[in-house]
Description:
InterPro entries: Htt_C-HEAT_rpt, Huntingtin_fam. By secondary structure, this protein is mainly alpha-helical.
Amino acid sequence: MFLFPQKALVRGVSLQIEPQKDKISIPMISIHLLSDFEILSDFLQRIFLLGWTKKSQFEEIWMSLFGVLCSTPIGNELQGEDVQQIVDQLSASTLAVEALTGMLTMSLLYPTPGDTVNSRFMIKTRQTRDSYLFLNSLNGRKAAISRTQVENSFNPAQIFSANLEKLAADGQKYALGQTSVFYLWSITGELEPTNKKPSGMPKSVSDYLIQASTDLDTVSSLKSLFENFFHWFENGYKTLPLPLLAASIKSIAILSDMFDDIQLYVRVYGYLKEVFVSFHLQNHPAQGLLNYCLLKFAAIVDLERLDSDPNEARKIVDSMIADAQEEEDTFVLDCTLHGLLYLLQSVIVDEFQQQLKGVGEKVLGKLEKIHSNYDLIHEDELETMEHHKLLWTLIFRVFEQFGRGDSEFDQRFLKLTKTVLMDPRVPTWQKNIVSNGIQGLVCHSASFTEAFRDCAVELFDTYQLRPNHLSMALSVYFTCVYRSIQDNRRFSQQEMDQFRQEFQKILNLFSYYTLKSEIQRFLPPIAEFFLIFFTRNELFDTIFALISMDEKSETIGDYDRCLYHLLHYALQRSAKEKPKETLDFVRFFLLEKVQNVKSRRISRHLKALIMVSVAFSKEARLL
């Protein structure tokens, strides 16, 4: 009932309610009424808002919308006498393409397809092999846990792998760049060494998500929609009105994430190539979507298989990369950059190294110009934010792929990232992207850990200007430290002395925070870090030296409270890893040290804290 368009009721259409034994049935609105643009718009809004709950409902909606599409005039039919009727039908068909695309993407909602309220669209990340090797090591897992605690996150397994441009995505919208090349290779079987003959589209690619909840199979729907597109292209894409052609290419850009046969990419590429080489969409926003599709297909399918003339395919890719350096239309540029992100994940990326570096140079110059204009603390408009996120994503990916730290471009990039991380004027959303990008680079390679670690340490001196940026500085710092440890090298005495200086700076952070909740999440990773670089004697000597021993004080100050918590976490962690040694340390060193505290009140507090911290140790009975 809620799906029935109000526009139709206003125009006098009666709602036929059919009471049955176990339910009340309301027939779907007729295809004839959906040919009206306003009624179809109302229907489309309701579908996208409410979704669908079962297979029969999906099929009813699909057939109604597809009926509109089947009435699309093409070829000689566009020369009819009733011009207004043709225009109305083309407008309805354009909207129907958008609706059918949305219906198919809603089948990818997780955990329940079609549920727009409680389900979300998943994002496939672009994690590299080098990052994967570090993150699956012991130190990589420690880095992930530390960052999870510092940033109050709940998913350590994914915290380093998020796509930068999708950091704030809530999963309610399916957009460009939702998948990765590796994921698309996996669903098309390109990663499996089999001799099986391709079988068209044998099953829905969303089966893995929906088998537990529904028997829905989207393959026939996807196939019928694309056969319709092929029919239009074969009858002459130049005769298609631009809005309908643009809607079709947008649908291909989104729904190509559901292709599970590599040959379908090849077939669609052939049609899109004709549109590209004819410059039919030049100066039209849909050119960006066309660029996106062609770059994405070139990244997924080997050029030798994608085009009968691989050299021509290379020229097409090369021309799109060149155009990206001069493109002024933001939408076209964003779509092209999304396509380049796919290309940067592909096996042919080295063939276009110089061209991609050229794009990187252009993007870097644009980001430098943007940052030079930050003369006030401000937040950007949403559209600008999304564009800037994409620029940062691309530049980090280009540097990760080709950067070595020795070229002028590399030095400019490193300088900009460190400057943005340090600058208190930079909006939080942008600093979050940069800090995530830096940590992604550090996970990928240990070459830049020292430079970024020093940058994070400098932030410890200026965090009062933007306190909410402190968690980013700590995250970068801990990630750099654990990446250095993973490098399997011994730290010199000079480096250990530097760590001790940084230790003092981190302890000084406690003096700023007055609320326990603000600092509480920082303490476990700080304690874990200190136990790596300092002996128990060094660590607890330092903490005891900082705790106020004023006998006249009736309450525990905020700074001392933080130190008590740090002492607790450090003892707890030490007792868990080395219970016998920790208990001996407590008995023969720590408790004796507490006995020498003149203030009985503070002495009692410390004894109680120490006993509680080691109480769950297997060796606690020795006390």
